[in-house]
Design goal:
Chain lengths: ~325, ~250
């Protein structure tokens, strides 16, 4: 660190991951899977990266992030039904709805840390979930919002039809590339380093002059907004929005994806976690409806024997030990 | 007028009075010592002076401004830094980054979400200068938690110095150090004296009496004696207490 903290904007790993994803539509059906799974993996990989900004990079244990994913999904659908049926506008609405939700939550919890922070995120997550279920006139209640269209991506004179899973996959891949690039820059920026400092020692950060509350609030809003973007894409992909993605157990899924993948020690861990989680759902789920039991056992085994997660396997032993495992 | 003044501070935790009418004044350029037995209220007093606790009554004045009840970050930005009795570092950061993150210019760029962290050559040079001051110039790339105890103590001081403070509070800087470590720290504090106004809580009387210009004795949450080291050596209360025997 003698010459500062210069990190390249593009890395070989980053390009390899993007390139590998770009080939997925070419072979996914040949191994017995289906194109929509690729779309789903990319959406959840984007969501997991956004979530890890809070958990892995800032040390804020949010267990109610499903609320922001759901707000994004509803934001996308409602904007399409009641405002303008334009893809960019609706995705903007998804981000705005989730970021607003994040700002409300952040205003109440950013002075807390540890278990109190976690409990409050759970409580707020449940509040949003309950509102979504009960506001039948707006959200469709438990029936959800149906018939959300896969809007075309208009770029000036060119328009891309996203009704087919392959075209939607490449659109979601473009979003994933943009989000991962943005987050990569962010975690290595001055803002990202302050978040890392707050994660390690909030008291010390405060006593060297950082307004910790503002940083914690800002990162939650940012993470919520990007989770909402993923939620908007999910609503478009499945042509509907349901309250169950806002529930506590769905919020738990993103925590599991992030931790199993190794979000505490690697930037790309959450992506790996999303892949493993969704493959486990479909592959193990093809043999047994109790696939979550097996995945849960994998989660427990990792927490006990490899707390750094699967991503930690790619790191040198000295770097692989997460702060939380001390 | 003193650079920093505490006037009639009072603080209670529940039904227990921990600070009672504490008045202290720290002159610019001096090293002021605070001593007293365990549980006397010294660290609590530091915590009030640096914004961690808000006093129930009394005022804290710095450089002519009333800073009573301001947040630690607001007080730090005014130019007051502190070290802690229990080690308080960014353990996963390198020695370099522990200091770099505490620099005012890093703090000003803290909201930049896409720029390069610590890319400025002047900033890097400043970090090296501070690390050289505390004797950690050869440890820049080492992870903070891997440093030996004495060097972690020095890094604590480096982090506090990074904010370019006008006033530096050191809470038991020699705690846990062996005789060599204490000697090195005494040398460092001696070098800092004159560059920055220092306030030091210390149990090591030899250390404090050799360095301080003025010492305040706190006991039962009150200031029971104040004066130069020579005056305190002849103070009847201090002479009759364990503190006097140590001094």
């Amino acid at each position: 660190m003698r010459s500062g903290h210069r990190v390249p904007t593009l890395t070989p790993a980053m390009i390899a991951i993007w390139a590998a994803f770009a080939t997925v539509p070419l072979w996914i059906e040949h191994i017995g899977l289906y194109q929509y799974l690729g779309v789903e993996i990319l959406i959840f990989a984007t969501y997991a990266l956004a979530y890890n900004l809070v958990l892995g990079h800032s040390g804020l244990p949010s267990f109610g992030h499903g609320a922001f994913f759901g707000l994004g999904a509803y934001g996308f659908g409602l904007a399409q039904f009641h405002l303008v049926a334009d893809l960019w506008f609706c995705l903007g609405a998804a981000v705005a709805a989730a970021a607003l939700g994040g700002a409300i939550v952040a205003a109440f919890i950013s002075h807390r840390r540890g278990i109190y922070y976690s409990l409050l995120t759970i409580a707020f997550g449940q509040v949003f979930w309950f509102i979504a279920i009960k506001s039948h006139a707006i959200t469709g209640g438990e029936d959800g919002l149906l018939k959300i269209a896969r809007l075309p991506a208009r770029l000036g004179v060119v328009s891309f039809d996203l009704t087919h899973n392959i075209s939607l996959f490449y659109f979601v891949l473009a979003v994933f590339v943009a989000v991962s690039l943005l987050l990569w820059r962010l975690v290595h920026s001055p803002f990202g380093r302050v978040l890392k400092a707050i994660k390690q020692n909030e008291t010390r950060a405060r006593f060297v002059g950082y307004d910790v509350w503002r940083y914690k609030a800002a990162v939650l809003v940012l993470s919520a907004g990007l989770s909402g973007l993923a939620g908007g894409l999910f609503a478009m992909a499945q042509s509907s929005a349901f309250p169950d993605v806002m529930s506590l157990h769905y919020s738990g899924y993103i925590v599991m994806m992030t931790l199993v993948g190794g979000g505490l020690v690697t930037f790309w861990g959450p992506v790996l976690g999303a892949i493993v989680f969704l493959l486990a759902r479909d592959v193990i789920g093809a043999f047994t409806t109790g696939w979550m039991l097996w995945f849960g056992m994998l989660f427990v085994a990792l927490v006990v024997y490899r707390p750094e997660g699967l991503g930690g396997l790619f790191l040198r032993p000295a770097r692989a030990k997460p702060a939380a495992a001390k | 007028m003193a650079l920093f003044e505490a006037r009639e501070l009072h603080l209670r935790f529940g039904d227990r009075v921990v600070l009672e009418n504490i008045s202290l004044a720290f002159e610019a350029g001096c090293l002021s010592g605070i001593m007293g037995p365990n549980g006397a209220g010294k660290t609590t007093c530091f915590n009030v002076l640096t914004g961690r606790y808000r006093p129930d009554r009394g005022r804290v004045m710095f450089d002519g401004a009333d800073i009573t009840g301001r947040s630690p970050q607001a007080i730090a930005r005014l130019g007051i830094a502190r070290s802690f009795q229990l080690m308080n570092l960014f353990d996963e950061f390198t020695v370099f980054e522990n200091v770099a993150i505490a620099l005012p210019q890093t703090r000003k760029r803290g909201a930049d979400p896409i720029g390069v962290a610590y890319g400025d050559a002047a900033l890097v040079a400043e970090v090296h200068e501070i690390l050289d001051t505390v004797g950690l110039g050869e440890r820049v790339d080492q992870i903070a938690k891997s440093l030996p105890y004495g060097e972690r103590r020095a890094l604590e001081i480096a982090v506090a110095l990074a904010s370019r403070p006008k006033l530096l509070f050191l809470d038991e800087p020699t705690a846990g150090l062996g005789s060599d470590g204490r000697a090195r720290l005494a040398e460092l504090v001696h070098r800092l004296k004159g560059q920055v106004t220092l306030v030091v809580i210390e149990h090591d009387m030899e250390f404090l009496f050799s360095l301080a210009d003025v010492i305040s004795v706190i006991h039962w949450g009150q200031v029971i004696a104040q004066g130069s080291p020579a005056e305190l050596r002849t103070n009847p209360w201090v002479k009759n207490s364990n503190l006097g025997k140590l001094a």
